[in-house]
Amino acid sequence: MIKVLKTDLFRLFRTKAFYVFPIFVTVILVLEVMLSGVKISDEPEVYNEDGNVTVSIDINEIPSEDQYEQFGISTLLGVVTDGTLLMFLGIALVIFATNESRNGFVKTAAGCVQDKGYMPLSKIAVSAVIVVIYILEFAVLRFVFTAITAAISGRSLQYVSLPRGDAGKFAGYILLCILVHIAFSAMLMLMHELFRSRAIGIVWIFLESTGLFARLVSAMVMMLQTWFKILPDFNISKYLLMNNISDGYASKAFNPVTVLVMCLVYTGFAGGLAVWMAKYKDVR
């Protein structure tokens, strides 16, 4: 297992798809700086329709919070909830997994690896590495561009801390968000073992990351409840992982125990099936 994992990590850092996420984030943040980086003048003026000055604003009258470019730990780690991280994780993982099949790596490994079940397990472990790296990359890039925006606009950086007593809750929330992404990786590996299709994997991860899959499932459940009076009290949102974490750790919809149990169920079930299929499915 250790040898397979080392090989996969070595291959990961040589896969071009792995570097798409930081490039995408950099482009988005550059555009954000270009749109928001307007320096406040010493005496801003407001003009009417005739072009005459109607109000001259004293800089001292501007609310104090507008004199700062604020950032906080929730802002720096906010990428874990909006689906962007899931999308690029899925794309990188699908391309990474299908590349080895197309390049004959699986056939070679099948004769060298004692247990082929190690291969999907290694991919799931690699997905955890990708998630952590992407989160750190986003946090660093977000801070750098926040500092650039502050410099351009003439504001000072101000750190906004979490509410008192929420540090532990937020840390647990971030850990659960990582587990959610690992659970999706396990499901993606199951799909890979089933179809070995890059297109199917990318389409599925696109539907999941954009929330379209959740909407389709919710619509189907609502149709059963409305038309056929089946499962009248069933709440499908509790079992859709991204729905549970999308509104943050302070949301009433977020239940840490439910999310943890669902992550373990999805990861164990999908990962176990992927391992079973890798062991007994013929290598082509």
Description:
By secondary structure, this protein is mostly helical. The chain has helices at residues 2-12, 20-36, 73-76, 84-102, 105-112, 118-153, 167-195, 198-210, 212-227, 241-245, 256-280; strands at residues 45-47, 53-56, 68-72, 156-160. The strands form 2 sheets. Strands 1-2 form a two-stranded antiparallel ribbon. A two-stranded parallel sheet has the order 3-4. Helix 4 packs antiparallel against helix 8, helix 6 packs across helix 11 (256-280) and helix 7 (167-195) runs antiparallel to helix 8 (198-210). The protein is globular. It starts with a helix and ends with a helix. The relative contact order is 0.14. Mean pLDDT is 83; it is low at 38-47 and 53-63.
Q: Could you provide a short overview of the structure?
A:
The chain has 284 residues and is mostly helical.
SSE pattern: HHEEEHHHHEHHHHH
What do the pLDDT scores average to? 83
Q: How many strands in all?
A: 4
Structural class by sheet pairing and helices: mainly alpha
Terminal-residue CA separation? 22 Å
Order of adjacent strands in the largest pleated sheet: 1-2
Number of helices: 11
List keywords for this structure.
single chain; 284 residues; mainly alpha; two-stranded antiparallel ribbon; two-stranded parallel sheet; 11 helices; globular
